[in-house]
Amino acid sequence: MRQHQPTHQPTADDIAGLIARHAGTEGPLLPILHDIQDAFDHVPQMALPLIAEALNLTVAEVHGVMSFYHDFRKAPAGRLVVKICRAEACQSMGANALSEAVLGKLGLDWGGTTRDGGVTVEPVYCLGLCACAPAAMVGEKLIGRASADRLEAAMEGAA
Amino acid sequence: MKDFIIPWDEKDMGTPAKSGKPVSLSIDGIAVSVPAGTSVMRAAAEAGITVPKLCATDSVEAFGSCRLCVVEIEGRRGTPASCTTPVHDGMVVHTQSSKVKKIRKGVMELYVSDHPLDCLTCAANGDCELQDMAGMVGLRDVRYTPGENHYDPSGTGARSQAEARLRMPEGEANPRYIAKDTSNPYFTYDPAKCIVCSRCVRACEEVQGTFALTIEGRGFESRVSAGGPQDDFLTSDCVSCGACVQACPTATLQEKSVAELGTPDRSVVTTCAYCGVGCSFKAELNGDELVRMVPWKHGKANRGHSCVKGRFAYGYASHPDRIMKPMIRDSIDEPWRQVEWAEALAFAATRLKGIREQYGRRSMGVITSSRCTNEETYLVQKLTRAVFLNNNTDTCARVCHSPTGYGLGQTFGTSAGTQDFDSVEKVDVALVIGANPTDGHPVFASRLKKRLRQGAKLIVIDPRRIDMVKSAHIEAAHHLPLTPGTNVAVVTALGHVIVTEGLYDEAFIRERCDWDEFQAFAEFVSDKRHAPESTALLTGVNAQELRAAARLFAKGGNGAIYYGLGVTEHSQGSTTVMALANLAMMTGNIGRDGVGVNPLRGQNNVQGSCDMGSFPHELPGYRHVKGPEVRKIFEDAWGVSIDPEPGLRIPNMLDAAVEGTFKALYCQGEDILQSDPDTHHVAAGLKAMECVIVHDLFLNETANYAHVFLPGSSFLEKNGTFTNAERRINKVRKVMAPKNGYEDWEVTQMLANAMGAGWAYTHPEQIMAEIAATTPSFAGVTYDRLDELGSIQWPCNEEHPEGTPLMHVDGFVRGKGRFIVTEYVATDEKTGPRFPLLLTTGRILSQYNVGAQTRRTENSVWHDQDELELHPHDAENRGLKDGDWVRLASRTGETTLRAKVTDRVSPGVVYTTFHHPDTQANVVTTDFSDWATNCPEYKVTAVQVTPSNGPTDWQEDYNAQAAQARRILSAAE
What we know:
The complex is a heterodimer of chains A (159) and B (973).
Chain A: H1 12-20, H2 29-40, H3 47-55, H4 59-68, E1 80-85, H5 88-92, H6 95-106, E2 119-124, E3 136-138, E4 141-143, H7 148-158
Parallel strand pairs in A: 1-2
Antiparallel strand pairs in A: 1-3, 3-4
Helix pairs in contact in A: 1-3, 3-4
Chain B: E1 22-27, E2 30-35, H1 40-46, E3 72-73, E4 92-94, H2 98-113, H3 129-137, H4 159-166, E5 187-189, H5 199-208, E6 213-216, E7 223-226, H6 243-247, E8 253-255, H7 256-261, E9 266-271, E10 280-286, E11 289-295, H8 308-312, E12 327-328, E13 336-338, H9 341-359, E14 364-368, H10 374-388, E15 393-395, H11 402-411, E16 429-433, H12 437-440, H13 442-453, E17 457-461, E18 470-471, E19 474-475, E20 478-480, H14 487-500, H15 506-512, H16 515-526, H17 532-539, H18 543-555, E21 559-563, H19 565-568, H20 573-586, E22 596-599, H21 606-611, E23 618-619, E24 623-624, H22 628-638, H23 650-659, E25 664-668, H24 672-675, H25 679-687, E26 691-696, E27 708-711, E28 720-723, E29 728-732, H26 744-754, H27 764-774, H28 783-789, E30 791-793, E31 837-842, E32 867-870, H29 872-877, E33 885-889, E34 894-901, E35 909-913, E36 941-947, H30 953-965, E37 968-969
Parallel strand pairs in B: 1-4, 13-37, 14-15, 14-25, 16-17, 16-21, 17-20, 21-22, 25-26, 26-27, 31-35, 32-34
Antiparallel strand pairs in B: 1-2, 3-4, 5-8, 6-7, 9-10, 10-11, 12-13, 12-27, 18-19, 23-24, 28-29, 29-30, 31-36, 32-35, 33-34, 33-36
């Protein structure tokens, strides 16, 4: 499960407070994006001009950095995020079949969220578990030698 | 005739020039020596060898992303990118080994695998580096299709895009396709053609300094993005300078004009006719059809950069409003009659002669234009001096930079700025006062911002929080938001801090200035009443902040002062210029690179029009008309006797007209009704005249009161020279034949000859020869020399045969620098209960001056009306919201416009621009003016702002009169 459940839609004051924590530090953009995402499970678009103003950057620059990292979301994900590794080692050990099975069962495409907002499935490129490929991550929990059944069990456990 | 020349090599050297010690190396067996720090790619280019490249171009630093420029270097492993590898002594480089050739072909194949091959129907056909490089590396096949791509799935408009479609899986939409962004009026962004080389992003950052572009996403999804995820080019921070379009190697960023008209096949180097930066451009054409204007990289003022006006806003030259035939009328109530040139000139000459007979030779005069060439200006003042036989000549510089001429003349001995623009690259502390460079002088602003990003400090003295105060990656160390009208008090207070805290440069002052005068000045300025604490209440500037700014300027290294009309257009304009000169002298900031006093001139040829004797008391070269030895030079050259009495200034001409003693005016390329203060008074003066001759591109506002209209030629249609803010004389080259039939200097000559002058110039070159022969600071200037050197900064004479980039290097022109006491005297224009707010006026990036040109281009997309900026506090007090119609009233008049509520201005201060004639901001401004030069006080007017329903009676009457006065009968009627 996620560690921080957002309690409300972020306001400009919330964002300003998170930015203020990093005032005067070196290279504060990524830490600020992380803090906002941690607090609200996504980085709302309205935060971009606020960050740009505070760091004397342009919105384009903040957008460029944020969009480079797939982990920063524009909108909140489902309550549970499942990440399946699609890097070379896992693909060679059946990750494609695994993801087809999981996505098919949930009726989702990559990055999609189930209608009830329960589960989001995302690709990830290497979890550092190549020795136990295929690998996946359910919430914060890493799973090696993943199979559709094991993932389903883990998802039920987390729900 | 030398209309068509490009003497310099246009080759892209790949990476910027460096300036280290020489390093010798061998490239493909050719020995070459280049400065340390130079890239292998540039060294190869110097040796005449082109290394294939895509992501490198010499306007931005090397990036090393395309991997096409790989080379082999003996003794090194691998295949380094030549753009990011600096040269070393003794290096042996091979650019054409079988290994690198194979790599390049592979890289190219990958690029082309995601690039639509609609080359024959592509707007960049013939002007595409991807195409060139594919040819250069010998690409003969692409093995990677079908596959994922970014193509337009419809294949619309291009046969080979249909072929592209065939290579995609059947029947599927392309989820990666992003439609073309056509929001900018001048260029398009087509993501399907993007190779993600980042050249546009880097140009926006490094060259322009706006940071409006980024690469969004990663990997195969990476695309260029303007602004944030919701933005397009128009809504983003993009200022449409064109640097990205210039940098783009493909058709991804492409001028719409090229897409419409085709690739240009010839080009003429010329000079922009907008602001005083004086950028060099290549006018690119097919036949006599202008396809695009491209900044010329060898231009010494702009170094290859441009702004939205010079780069794109040239459409006015072919606008349907332009008048091509001369017109006359007996009185201004009548409609215009189109006539042939001979009839118009005879009509004008008869009237002028009649007026001379009836009212005497001093009853007529001329106004020269800072928009016209030196040669044209010279002829217009010659017309009044040698043909009308008086000195009634004035120029629009009267209303902008006349205090600069006076102030710098008094203190340094030369009526001009001291530096070249390259000097900004050595500045440590820049003091910007009364100027808004990002809007008024955008190319200079980009150069200054680049220096600031390298670590130079900035002090801004301006009532408004202009963009230079804080914008992406730059921030002023100190912003002193003074109350309009208190420049002298603030600059004198800076002097107070520097003198009383002992921060002045005694060695410099003793050597270069008059020490006794300095002591008298020091005693004056040390008085407690000039302390920032004493003046804070008056100026509104925080004393501690002012002290910190003074210390920074005095001790921060090379200190350079850049100023604009916010300094000159005041009742104490000349005093502020002298106070700034004092500041530069006391801190030793004169006579070398990176320092100086730099007026940012408003118009392309303000400097030149002043140099050419446009003022009523001065013959060309700033020599007083009272001097018999000066008059003799011109009397000998012209064969006439010159009136020893100075003539009338513009305001005096209008006063005299109202009084009935001034009857005729020849006004070239200036719209005094819109640009001069107190519109009512200007209108009354013009109305009282019996012969007003307007020589212009358009029926401007002044022409509503004219009897003769002579059509003008645009800067694209004439030969001549402009002199920019750095005293740089740049060639203006005829790009096409004048659409109206004659260049402006020819029209003036025809008018003079209709009066019996007998002038016989056949080319402006002959006029320049006459200027050089009569004016010492131009003695060495010839058209041949200008072609050879590209441009020349005056003085150019035997002592300085190649011109003078820096003034006062070994000593001031006047001998010893002169400190002048600068006592603050408040303007008579004061706020009170009826008019509690202070109005100050300024400019905006997309529009230029009275807007006669830019309003007739797509630039109005960005700014289609003048707005009144006011502080939220003042807005709330008056119950005003953003976008409301407001009535702006002063003691002289009133107008209406829309409100823009913003904290850029301080409470008590309101701000607007005067680009649009339906607003007529100058109805409101007063006729107070500079004590020394009569430069109008545009920057301070006491006003009241109240809610309004729409245009004032004045605006409606004015529009009715204008409509009436603009009627034209066609020749047949």
